[in-house]
User: Fold these one by one.
Assistant:
Number 1:
Amino acid sequence: MFAEFDSLSNLEELDMRGYRGLRKLKSLYLSNVKIRDGSKLLQSMGSLPSLNTLYLKHNNFTGTATTTTQGK
């Protein structure tokens, strides 16, 4: 599974807004991936309606991020 990610070593931005292919994804673990701009990441979370767990340990976030949660 992770072999596909090796070809993305130069990826600088991943915008998932509007993407509907991961609608059943429940957990996303992004620890130690050196994410800096958390606001862009959080904006993309709307395309993951079943997400219950977002694990972001050991990233280097800067700035402020605002989130809004909506009940299902």
Number 2:
Amino acid sequence: MWNRSMLLLLTLLASTAAQARCPTLSDLSWEMTPTGSSYEASFRLTVYGEVFWGFNGTVDGSTISLDAWFTH
């Protein structure tokens, strides 16, 4: 179902859409930290110093578990 490649593609599409809507994009951060057999994932899209869209979660094989999902 979901894997790291699909999650990265989703992130790239979201960031492209956000840049198209808001050309004053100030920061885009993406992190995947290995934790044994899974990865801790974090994505933040910041506009004018405020988080516009993002998530925290875990990627384990084909499973993505979102711990937090937020929008502005």
